[in-house]
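The freezer alarm interrupted the setup, so I double-checked each line after restarting. Inputs confirmed:
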Amino acid sequence: MLTAEEAADLIAAIAARQDRAAFEALFRHYAPRVKAFVMRGGADAEAAQEVAQETLILVWRKAASFDRSRASASTWIFTIARNKRIDLIRRGTRPQIEVDDWLNAFVGEAQDAGKSVETEQTYTKVKAILADLSVDQLAVIRKAFFEDKTHTVIAEEMGLPLGTVKSRIRLALGRLREKLEKDEG
Amino acid sequence: MSRHMAPEELLLDYAAGGLAEGPALAVSVHVALDAGARRMVDRLGMLAGALLDGEREAAVGDEALLQTLARLDGMAVEARSEQAAAVAGPVWAPPPLRRYLGAASRWQHRRMGGFDEMPLHLHDGSHRASLLRLEPGRGLPQHRHIGDEYTVVMQGGFTDGSGSYAAGDFCVGPDEIHEPIADAGEPCIALIVLANPIVLTGPIGRYLNPLVRRGWL
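Predicted 3D structure, all chains:
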């Protein structure tokens, strides 16, 4: 298992010296997870593996643009994988959020070292909070992120009233906010 | 932080990339103007990363790794992409909106309604989008929506039966009849995104269509 800091260090090593060993470590961690994530959306193993490989290739090419003060490595890689999946499987009929756009939406502050430590720490907390969410809440959030479905479509598919899906989302995000803000004091 | 943030389920749809162009534009303008919405989208991004980290591992053989490593030969790590130069535009228009404002975009006075409108071009026909500008004290004619409506205030403010909305605020279409009035101060400038009515086809569709247009269905 890679920590947020280790993953960010590996990406930095690729950016600094085209470090193939660092790439291999990232590949071993992320390729199987990206493949599984893409298969959840209904893709077959072969197509999902292609998306995983293309995603990691883009991680290599774009390593210098990764800004650890703005996003965790996993968030950045998730965004690349998501766009690659739309590219390769759906052949994009919908304008997609570009990686840079999406990350630019987050924060406008200048890059600084303190901020990247904070980003990595917050990310570690978010990971821990996932374990506290109910199976029902997780199912809805996972569908949104992994299957590109809006909450309305999720409600239809799961045969649930829209209000139930909304309240699961709000409870899960409320829990996230509460825990993070308590720690921030 | 503004008083009216987009509902969290809509921020989730946005962060997950599931929204159609029109609603995605409305949410991105809101996120650009509202620190609270920005923080939530940021956290949602972390949540997505955490889900990926916690994902089970599908088998990826060494062969795939070797194949990928071979493709890296001669493939340079690209130089850091410079932040794209800020797109020029009016001060009240946040960057995600500026891309939709072309040389041909200008305010058109709607004499009937007593407001100015600047229609925006969306690539996706499921929604239409416009900027509206209302002088203080002026209102939109009373209207009712048949589909989803998303409003983001960018300058000034307005008040309707459901409350007061200031710059950065987000409003999801009221189901009720409403009659927004611009607040005192600067003219109110807002982005409005409306779902296009579904066009039914076929003999029954043609019969129903006028009813859909009048909002009876």
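Quick read of the result. Residues 162-184 of chain A form the longest helix (23 residues).
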